[in-house]
Amino acid sequence: MGQPVGRESGEGRDSAGATQPGLPPGQRLQRGWPVTHYGPVPKFRPERWEFRVFGATADGGKHCWTHDEFTALPYTTVVADLHCVTKFSMLGAEWGGVPARTILDIAPPADDVTHVMVWAEYGFSSNLRLSDFASEQALFATHKDGELLTAEHGFPLRLIVPHLYAWKGPKWVRGVEYMTADRRGFWEERGYHNLGDPWQEQRYSYQEGPGDGPDL
Length: 216
Known about the structure:
Largest sheet: 6 strands, mixed
Strand content: 25-35%
Number of helices: 3
Structural class: mainly beta
Number of strands: 13
Order of helices and strands: EEEEEHEEHEEHEEEE
Helix content: under 10%
C-alpha cells in the first residue's frame, strides 16, 4: 500500500468557498470524479492494443507489451491526490497499476535522456521531465479505489503523476518516448505551462520563466 502524497499547506477552497488545508492555491475540493477530456472516448480493442517504449533507449531498441503482458507486470497501489488545472482537486484516491519506475527498470533510457513524451490514443501527448516520470508515486493506473478504470476515466491505462496537474498524466496511454531534449506535448503547445506544478500554480505558458521549457 502506498502512502498519501501531494498534501502540503495551500490556499485552496472547498465547494462552499471555505479555505481548505491541503489544497494547492486556486483549487477547490471535489466530491466525486468529473469526466474531463478532449475528443471522443476511444474504443478498447485488446487484440490491437500495444504499449511501446521507444526513442533513446539504453539498448537502442523498441520495447513492446500486449495488453495481457502489460497487466501481468508487478502491480502496486499509491494513495494520492489528483489536481485538475480546471481547479478541482480530488483527495486521497487509491490508484492501482504499474509503477513508472518499473518501466524504467525493464526498458531503461540512455544515459543522456532528460525527458519523456507520454503518448496516448489519437496522437495525444504530454511531456515530462525524467525526474517527474521517475517519481515514486508516478503510476500507470488500471484501477481506482480497487475498481477498474472506466473508459471515460482512461481505461485501459492512464498515467498518474500526483505532484503535477492531471493533464500531465494522459488517459488511454499507449507508450513512452525517451528524449534527450525537451519537446512540448499537446496542451503544452496550446498555451499550458510546460512543467505543470499545482503548488506553484503553473497553469499557463505565459507564467513560464527562463529554463521552464522550449520556445513556443
